[in-house]
Automatic annotation (TrEMBL):
SUPFAM superfamilies: Thioredoxin-like. It comes from the Eukaryota. It comes from Corythaeola cristata (Great blue turaco). Residues 26-91 form the Glutaredoxin domain. Coiled coil: none annotated. Gene3D superfamilies: Glutaredoxin. The gene is Glrx5. This is Glutaredoxin-related protein 5, mitochondrial. Keywords: 2Fe-2S, Iron, Iron-sulfur, Metal-binding, Redox-active center. GO terms for cellular component: mitochondrial matrix. PROSITE patterns: GLUTAREDOXIN_2. PANTHER family: GLUTAREDOXIN FAMILY MEMBER (PTHR10293), GLUTAREDOXIN-RELATED PROTEIN 5, MITOCHONDRIAL (PTHR10293:SF16).
């Protein structure tokens, strides 16, 4: 909150970025949209979330907003897009999300948010044989 002056209130400002990362449990800054990702790494993030059944998340297209594109890099101190935030915390980019997906950490992190990964149900089905 508080009054913003001197052009500090733009979409790339720390305050603006912080509002965005906190507006939803799962927030992704990407190139393009989940329906139409415009880079392979952004696409990979969307696919990983989809595998876990996470369809309800906020995606921000940084190509639409150069201020935000720079602002989010400053905010996370991470030079590349996409960027994934869980519960307002910066998680990482595509490679980190992929690693978490492979080692099971992502299932655990989603569980903390109250999101049950679809992969858990998929594993249950395999056990039934």
């Amino acid at each position: 909150g508080g009054a913003e002056g001197g052009g500090a209130g733009g979409s790339g400002s720390r305050e603006a970025v912080e509002r965005l990362v906190r507006e939803h449990p799962v927030v992704v800054f990407m190139k393009g949209s989940p329906a139409q990702p415009l880079c392979g790494f952004s696409n990979a993030v969307v696919q990983i979330l989809r595998l876990h059944g996470v369809e309800d998340y906020r995606a921000h297209d940084v190509l639409q907003d150069p201020d935000l594109r720079q602002g989010i890099k400053n905010y996370s101190n991470w030079p590349t897009i996409p960027q994934v935030y869980l519960n307002g915390e910066f998680v990482g980019g595509c490679d980190i999300l992929l690693q978490m997906h492979q080692n099971g950490d992502l299932v655990e992190e989603l569980k903390k948010l109250g999101i049950r990964s679809a992969l858990l149900d998929a594993e249950k089905d395999q056990d039934k044989k």
